[in-house]
Amino acid sequence: MSILSGKKVLIGVTAGIAAYKTAALVRLFIKTGAEVKVVMTPAAKDFVTPLTLSTLSKNPVHSSFYDDEDENAIWNNHVDLGLWADLMIIAPATANTLSKMSAGASNNLLLATYLSAKCPVYFAPAMDLDMYNHPSTNNTFKKLQEFGNIMIPAESGELASGLVGQGRMAEPSTIIDFVEKDILGKLPLNGQKVLITAGPTYEAIDPVRFIGNHSSGRMGIELAKAAANLGANVNLILGPSALTIQHNLIQIINVVSAEEMYQAVVSEYSDCDIAIASAAVADYRPKHVSNQKIKKADSNFSIELERTKDILKWMGSEKKEQFLVGFALETENEEENARKKLKDKNLNLIVLNSLNDKGAGFKGDTNKITLINHKLETKAFDLKTKSEVAKDIFNEINVLKNE
Ligand code: CTP
């Protein structure tokens, strides 16, 4: 999954020969999972058809304040379009449109939309090399960037005029890379390494049987997603779960037993910035694992169990700069038990689930948590989806880390 997945991208097309590349740009944005709308200047329609762009973007494409040929025409609301977008990209951006943008002109739908947009605006200039290097154009670039717009520099190469130099619109794949990197670079967890344990563990009894638990792994997966969406590089150490996730910033390390989970944590822990133990790790495992399937007999059967390693406790004992978060699933004396675990395991924060709360715990899609930090400050949250809970946990982590 790309960081652009789910983002609302508004592409503004102006009248340059590079407009033919916008079709590929729309396709690439759609492939990242973004939602795309296109707005064009009237003259841009001479270079690429609205039909092509509406087919690829799966949305109507507008170039005027109302559609002439449609007798039931409604006003194409530039304010709505501008407010709809999470990011706007003018590509290609001609010298003419850029100068109008810098002057605040609004004599077409694209310009009015630009002036209404509250989101980050990128522009990818495309023009001949002398136009690109002209002091007036450079002044426009400077002014637009001073207003907070982000320039995606033109590339060098052969231009439509036959001349060779800088002025070619950046390739669509370069534009996507540029925007992804720019968004990532501004995220609060950019460059941070986050380690998350999630899911159940299975402790083998024999080749066909195990001791396990009902953890779905969803809470840990939502935590991984929330961290990646904040720009972190995530190592998700996942026990046997039916769920999975695909995201450019999430690396999944699949494990089965508590011992395998421990080994994976040991190799990833030392250089991580934030570690969250959300896994439901078995506290005991069969002392002897049979190589063969155990046959039934008439008499009762018992299994001798031995302790597994407490992975979170190990992380607490080895903690240096890491911000360490644990979970506590309790049925009685909830806050008191959670505070004890916070201390015993040397945590910065503990997430308490009470099985007495409806909708909480490790089976469903919702959770109800109470956060207790190292200063023993306590914050109770309402019942929420696990995705919202994950965001609440990272909000708290960000606040505590920046204190
Ligand atoms: N945990 C762990 N390794 C274990 C057991 C637990 O890393 N072998 C982690 C869990 O991921 C969770 C926290 O420890 O973050 C609390 O687990 P829990 O089972 O509720 O508490 P315990 O400390 O095992 O105590 P008890 O079972 O007595 O409640």
Describe the structure.
- Helix 4 packs across helix 7 (135-146) and helix 9 (218-229) crosses helix 13 (386-401).
- The chain has helices at 22-31, 50-57, 78-84, 95-103, 109-116, 129-133, 135-146, 172-185, 218-229, 258-269, 311-317, 334-344, 386-401; strands spanning 8-13, 35-40, 61-62, 87-93, 121-125, 150-151, 155-158, 164-168, 193-198, 203-206, 209-211, 233-238, 250-254, 274-277, 284-286, 305-307, 323-330, 349-354, 366-367, 369-373, 378-380, 384-385.
- With 403 residues, the chain is an alpha/beta fold.
- A hairpin with a 4-residue loop joins strand 20 and strand 21 (378-380).
- The strands form six sheets. An eight-stranded mixed sheet has the order 13-12-9-14-17-18-20-21, with helices on both faces. Strands 3-2-1-4-5-6 form a six-stranded parallel sheet, sandwiched between helices.
- The two termini are 32 Å apart.
- It is elongated, with a radius of gyration of 28 Å.
- Helix content is 33%, strand content 24%.
- The chain contains 13 helices and 22 strands.
- Bound molecules: cytidine-5'-triphosphate.
Write the layout of secondary structure elements.
Elements: E1 8-13, H1 22-31, E2 35-40, H2 50-57, E3 61-62, H3 78-84, E4 87-93, H4 95-103, H5 109-116, E5 121-125, H6 129-133, H7 135-146, E6 150-151, E7 155-158, E8 164-168, H8 172-185, E9 193-198, E10 203-206, E11 209-211, H9 218-229, E12 233-238, E13 250-254, H10 258-269, E14 274-277, E15 284-286, E16 305-307, H11 311-317, E17 323-330, H12 334-344, E18 349-354, E19 366-367, E20 369-373, E21 378-380, E22 384-385, H13 386-401
Parallel strand pairs: 1-2, 1-4, 2-3, 4-5, 5-6, 9-12, 9-14, 12-13, 14-17, 17-18
Antiparallel strand pairs: 7-8, 10-11, 15-16, 18-20, 19-22, 20-21
Helix pairs in contact: 1-2, 1-8, 3-5, 4-7, 9-13
This protein binds cytidine-5'-triphosphate.
